[in-house]
Structure prediction request, 517 residues.
Amino acid sequence: MIEAKSVCLKYSDGTIALRNVDLQVEPGDMVYITGPSGSGKTSLLKLFMGVEYPTSGSLEVLGQPIAKGQASEIRQLRRSIGPVFQEFKLIKGRTALENVMLGMRFLDIPQRRLREDATTALVKVGLEHKILSLVENLSWGEGQRVAIARAVARQPLLILADEPTGNLDKDNALNILELLTSFKNRNTAVIITTHATHLLEGIKEGRLIHVDNGSIHQERLG
Amino acid sequence: MRNILYNTGYFLKEAKAIIKLNLLSNIFSLLSTGLIFFILTMVSSGWWISSQVVETIQGEAEVSVYFKEDIKNNDVMKLIEDIKTIAGVREVRLVDEDEAYSRMVEILGNEAKVLSYLDDNPFNPFIEVKIHLENMESVVKNLSHIKGIEQIRDNREALERLHSIAEVLKILGYLVVAAVAISTLVIISHIIRMGIYDNRDQINTLRLLGAPEMFIAFPFLLEGLMLTIGGGLLAATLSAFSLKYFYAQMAGPLPFIPLPPREALVGRLITLVILLSAIMGVTGSLFGLSSAKND
Prediction:
């Protein structure tokens, strides 16, 4: 699913974000990426999304090499990914349902199923009462749930959640982690980044990847 | 393509939202494209009307032959037979005093009452010679050699003047089409760029979600199309009213100018302006989209 070999990422300003990252993620994996702010967690997700390209080394996501000159293929790849962005990136002036449906409109989902699947996703994240609310009227936590619904309604093979627990109290953060974990299945891998290591203390399943200064250290939980 | 058809409702809603975001700029763009297209329709109708007038008059190229007053009827008939033998002559007939009078009444229309102040019919009989325009010069030359002819009057000068007016209008038409095309492209591409800038976050999100460029661009294309077609409709309405007024004005004092039927002219103008506005809308939007992509 994801295969990174000696991946390095250096930004144009000279900042080295990742150093010799070797990583393999299989379908059904649950991966938590932790590390302090600026350690390289988001850079890693950006690479998986094809927003950045490795400066050296090789990276393949869902069989697609992440490299320059592959823009069209990477665009196609992103349709198999369910991203949950740090700032949600919801479209203002639209309802929760419209936001979820927007992420599905250009996928090969039959038209009649679009509304049905989007509604189901919103129900799954516990927002059945806010389906027709404008997203700017939702609380931070509710907005985050809409973002998660948008990601999972696309039935992706890979869910990438960037700091989904940021700005949340411990209980809500744990609920979000639990919710995201529940979308892991035989075909879908879930990767979550968080700087709040203490939230993972009770988690007994999955892999923990600690990023520090662009390098990674892996361990299996539980 | 299937996605585009499936999402028609969404695209229309998005286009509406984009227009609402910069409502005032969009209204001004619609008005300015409307006025630009209106100028185009006015020049085009001038061009068409003058072409039609020239064409009609060219088909009626004729020479009026005035003979001496003391000439006998038999000699007039012989004169007519002689004229018929000249190469380039299509038709020859005698117009007597009464017909000459009634023709003038028809031409003068409401003003014909001035003729009633005259005691006698002031018009002389003449021979009307319809000819092929290209033979005008040789026919006139041959006529001048026939005995008994006092004066030859042709409409060549008027035809040439009309022809040069039509040519000027044609050149003006081309210039106006070029000006309309350039200014519409500038207006539409600018408004599309503005829309893209205002929606950059949404566009970025859609790209991250893997939306095809066509899916992202389609609402902006629709926006451009709506603006230009709206402008086109505005221009078509203004033109229809203007031509109605123009025809009403021409019907009174200038009834002898052979104007083309108004309904046909308006229909032709509406087709032209709507087609052109649709083409300009799509092209302008594509310009706007491509220039925004290059930023």
Remarks:
- The CA atoms of residues 2 and 283 of chain B lie 23 Å apart.
